Amino acid sequence: MGYWAPASTSHTTGYAADIEREWYFHQDSQLFQSIQATLHEYYEKQIINLIDEERVWHICLNPKYVEHYTVIFESSL
């Protein structure tokens, strides 16, 4: 289920996303555990900011990594 996000949020600029926790938990527990472990690893390395909102994982790219991933993206075009 989606929801409206204001134009000023990091969701609309592509730097943040919500991943539906509950769906993965109920549909594929092994995949849920893999996603959870990967998100926590990236959080510990400070690549992303991570908020567990119970229903969703809210993830946002750490601003320090924006330039790094912009270069990677632009080189792939």
Characterize the structure shown:
The mean pLDDT is 83. Strands 1-3-2 form a three-stranded antiparallel beta sheet. The chain has four helices and three strands. A hairpin with a 3-residue loop joins strand 2 (48-52) and strand 3 (56-61). It has 77 residues and is α+β, with helices and mostly antiparallel strands. The N and C termini lie far apart (32 Å). The longest helix is centred in the middle third of the chain and has 16 residues, at 29-44.
Which helices and strands, and how do they pair?
Layout: H1 10-13, E1 16-20, H2 21-27, H3 29-44, E2 48-52, E3 56-61, H4 66-75
Antiparallel strand pairs: 1-3, 2-3
Q: Which stretches are poorly predicted, pLDDT < 50 over at least 5 residues?
A: none
Order of helices and strands: HEHHEEH
Helix content: 40-55%
- Helical segment count: 4
Q: How large, in whole angstroms, is the Cα Rg?
A: 14 Å
What percent of residues are in strands? 15-25%
Largest sheet entry: 3 strands, antiparallel
Output the strand order for the largest sheet: 1-3-2
Helix vs. strand class? alpha+beta
Tally of DSSP β-strands:
3
Q: Which of globular, elongated, flat, extended, rod-shaped describes the shape?
A: elongated
Mean pLDDT, to the nearest integer, reads 83
**Gap between N and C termini, in Å?**
32 Å
Question: Features of this protein?
Answer:
about 80 residues, alpha+beta, 3-stranded antiparallel β-sheet, 4 helices, about 50% helix, elongated
